[in-house]
Write a structure and sequence with these properties.
The complex is a heterodimer of chains A (about 210) and B (about 375). Helices cover about 30% and strands about 30% of the residues of chain A. With about 210 residues, chain A is an alpha/beta fold. Chain A has two domains: about 1-90 and about 175-205, Periplasmic binding protein-like II (D-Maltodextrin-Binding Protein, domain 2, 3-Layer(aba) Sandwich); about 90-175, D-Maltodextrin-Binding Protein, domain 2 (3-Layer(aba) Sandwich). Chain A is elongated and about 55 Å long. Chain A starts with a strand and ends with a helix. By secondary structure, chain B is of the alpha/beta class. In chain B, strands 1-5-6-12-11-10-7-9-8 form a nine-stranded mixed sheet, with helices on both faces. Classes of the chains: A alpha/beta (about 210), B alpha/beta (about 375). The interface of A and B includes residues 61, 63 and 84 of A.
């Protein structure tokens, strides 16, 4: 059996939908269920729901063979796994945002972010000295309340930013859901894992042909 | 109450440590049977020793300072100290085979359950660059796992020369190489595609690069495809060398063998074969090794070398608990003391474990005590 860790939330729903159109059925699954593990009818796949930040460690340690998680999380955690497939879903961008005309090039930039590692690396590469404040939510508040100069966060439509008077200052990296695979599982459960990768690759192609 | 117990270290209780010792004995006997003699390097090495291009990551090393202010590191790997030791102690010898069982110290990342101190065993052979030796080294790795009764094993071979040759033909900047290395290592096709596209790499090289992550599987097919992707002699040599190692291995091992040209030279000093041994449902590789022909030049005469390491601490978590030998616990009196002592000594010499207790002593084990306080009973024992 192949064990898959899914990031709880909207991504999990699209992922399950993707698996179901690929022919795997999960009769026990419903959005409201409190169960954390689901098996498909043929007992080929078991799904585990975990917090998105935890998906990489589950896969790296081999607690699950596969994970489906956003690129933003992978950039932050940098797990030692195979990152084999861009599932295209959940597309957005990770950006530097702040008040219009904020100068990024100055030294001692204070950044609020859920992604301290991503933020630090990005500015380090440009030789900008930063101070990073690790936040856990409502990151947009940080510049408004004077906690930080800018924020580093994922931006989908930009609506939240706009409503709070903030703008995208720099686009850092495009984000979408990725399929990650444990390095041992790919080799020791080769056939079944590869079949799954191919199935999802095909299904992704069908759905996002225009991309 | 114990506070401030450091992270990343663990006590080995007697049950744990018995398994450690048993595993160590099995492995040592195997290594010795192939002519690999055990050696030990000091717990400390000079920090400066790791200041060469391609040295292991210095950030994770545990540093200490001696009385004169010199910076030392707790043994952060086994191979570099061994290469140093061989250069210092055996400058003339042409061929050498050494094995070790030692502790490795490397600061573990917080919160991921890794250890900062673990037991590692391994072998290193110096002075022979033939594919036959490479194959034998791999086969000893296989045998080590089999000797510990592990099954569902899969071994994977790659070659550092293939990617090195490909990079050579692409003339990339150091930063670009590093980035590509990461994408190949994580089989990250989407990012690899993006990088190749944005850097405008030549078509032929880009084609080979894009195949690398998925260039793994059954040896024959993979070798055939790899051959077709070669752009220069270095790549051709790598494929040919790997083919010879595979051919030699066919007679030596029975476990499933795959090739993976996506293995990258993460330890940097590998120059040829890179290999890993996996077990189904164990999350990380159990055996990891390869050929490093240039490392010894850092310390003395150039001697080609090949070897591997096993993380014994991790291996032991996959093995069943050791079964402890049950001791005999006896109680003597003033009258029977001498006789019981003598008999206990003889029994110990023939392999038994005996604990003798005086009249009022408490047993360290929660176990039935044989009463030998009576002279008749003691005689019968």
């Amino acid at each position: 059996m192949v064990k898959i860790a899914l990031a709880k939330g909207r991504l999990a729903e699209i992922a399950i939908d993707l698996l179901q159109t690929s022919g795997y059925r999960f009769p026990d699954y419903s959005k409201k269920s409190r169960k954390l593990v689901f098996e498909d009818e043929t007992k080929t796949i078991s799904l585990t729901f975990v917090k998105s930040m935890d998906v990489p460690i589950y896969v790296e340690k081999g607690a699950t063979d596969i994970g489906i998680v956003g690129k933003d999380i992978l950039m932050e955690i940098e797990p030692d796994v195979y990152e084999m497939l861009d599932l295209k879903m959940g597309a957005c961008r990770i950006c530097v945002a702040g008040f219009p005309n904020t100068k990024i090039q100055r030294q001692q930039l204070v950044i609020g972010s859920k992604y301290p590692n991503v933020a630090k690396k990005y500015f380090q590469n440009q030789g900008i000295k930063t101070e990073i404040i690790h936040l856990n939510g409502s990151v947009e508040l940080a510049p408004i309340m004077g906690l930080s100069d800018v924020i580093v966060d994922i931006v989908e439509s930009g609506k939240t930013l706009k409503e709070n008077g903030l703008v995208v200052l720099e686009e850092m990296h495009p984000i979408s859901a990725r399929m990650i695979v444990n390095k041992v599982s790919l080799k020791t459960k080769g056939k079944i894992v590869e079949t799954l990768i191919e199935t999802l690759r095909e299904e992704t192609k069908n759905r996002y042909e225009d991309c | 109450m114990v506070k401030n117990f450091p992270d990343g270290v663990r006590d080995l209780t007697s049950e744990d440590f018995q398994l450690v010792e048993e595993t160590a004995t099995t492995i040592r006997r195997l290594f010795q049977s192939y002519g690999y003699r055990s050696v030990q390097t000091p717990s400390f090495e000079a920090y400066d020793q790791y200041n060469f291009p391609g040295a292991p990551d210095r950030n994770a090393m545990l540093k200490c300072i001696d009385a004169s202010g010199r910076v030392l590191v707790l043994r952060p790997d086994a191979t570099v100290p061994l290469a140093r030791m061989v250069a210092m102690n055996y400058p003339q010898e042409k061929a050498l085979r050494f094995s070790y069982q030692t502790t490795i110290f490397r600061q573990a990342e917080a919160g991921v359950g890794d250890l900062s101190e673990w037991h590692q065993a391994g072998i290193e052979t110096f002075g022979d660059a033939s594919p036959e030796v490479d194959a034998e080294v791999v086969s000893i790795g296989v045998e080590a796992l089999l000797a510990l009764q592990l099954d569902n094993l899969h071994f994977n071979l790659g070659h550092a020369g293939f990617l090195a040759g490909l990079f050579e033909s692409l003339s990339l900047t150091e930063k670009q190489e590093k980035e590509l290395l990461g994408f190949v290592e994580s089989k990250n096709l989407p990012e690899l595609q993006r990088a190749i596209h944005s850097w405008n790499l030549p078509e032929e090289g880009a084609r080979a690069l894009l195949r690398l992550p998925l260039l793994y599987g059954e040896p024959k097919a993979v070798l055939l495809e790899a051959k077709a992707l070669c752009l220069n002699k270095q790549m051709e040599d790598a494929v040919q060398n790997l083919a010879l190692v595979v051919e030699n291995l066919q007679d030596l091992i029975q476990v499933p063998l795959q090739l993976d040209f996506g293995f990258t030279n993460r330890m940097h000093y590998y120059t040829g074969l890179i290999f890993k041994g996996y077990m189904q449902n164990a999350g990380t590789a159990l055996v990891s090794g390869g050929r490093y022909n240039d490392l010894s030049t850092q310390f003395g005469p150039t001697r080609p070398a090949c070897g591997f390491g096993l993380n014994l601490s991790y291996l032991n978590t996959l093995l069943p608990k050791a079964i402890a030998q049950i001791p005999e616990v006896v109680r003597y009196s003033k009258e029977t003391k001498k006789m019981v002592y003598q008999k206990a000594k003889a029994k110990r010499q023939s392999g038994s474990i005996v604990i003798t207790l005086s009249d009022d002593a408490r047993s360290p084990l929660d176990q039935k005590i044989l009463d030998l306080r009576n002279l008749e009973e003691a005689k019968k024992w």
